């Protein structure tokens, strides 16, 4: 098991957690994950944005993509991602609904080629959170509220130190969640937590 923070509750997990699964989230198991390096502290959160097809919200295409059930012939855009096998730990829908695809103790496939503070391969030590949205567009109040609650839960189970965007760990390659994400709002909501956030 990857290294976590101090724990309480039974059996060895903080309230609301079981084997890396946040019980407040709807569980949809993805086959797209791997084992984290032994003893690796999970101390980084990477925020992403996603919508399938781009700019369309509310369907089940994201869930299907992360569980390898997407019909790549169902929309012309899907031809550009045919065969892609990816995942994130969490997805926050526009209405604040929370889904989890991979145990946080496991390595989800969300960041790709990436680095943070000189450490390569962010997937090894990060938790990936997808926000349903389009880079450059605004996100919903319900999503910020769900994200704040999720961050609080994650910090009870893991030694989270920093929250960044995909754009910060893969600059030039990725631009999400993009300028529509309100980092100042997130910073205000977690001010007492002492988390490191990008200076925007």
From TrEMBL:
GO terms for biological process: cell wall organization; peptidoglycan catabolic process; peptidoglycan turnover. Keywords: Cell wall biogenesis/degradation, Cytoplasm, Hydrolase, Metal-binding, Zinc. One of its GO terms (molecular function) is metal ion binding. It catalyses: Hydrolyzes the link between N-acetylmuramoyl residues and L-amino acid residues in certain cell-wall glycopeptides. Signal peptide: none annotated. The keyword Transmembrane helix does not apply. It comes from the Bacteria. Residues 30-178 form the N-acetylmuramoyl-L-alanine amidase domain. Its cofactor is Zn(2+). SUPFAM superfamilies: N-acetylmuramoyl-L-alanine amidase-like. It is found in: Cytoplasm. Pfam families: Amidase_2. InterPro entries: Amidase/PGRP_sf (IPR036505), Amidase_domain (IPR002502), NAMLAA_amidase_2 (IPR051206). Its EC number is 3.5.1.28. Its main location: cytoplasm. One of its GO terms (cellular component) is cytoplasm. Belongs to the N-acetylmuramoyl-L-alanine amidase 2 family. This is 1,6-anhydro-N-acetylmuramyl-L-alanine amidase AmpD. The gene is ampD.
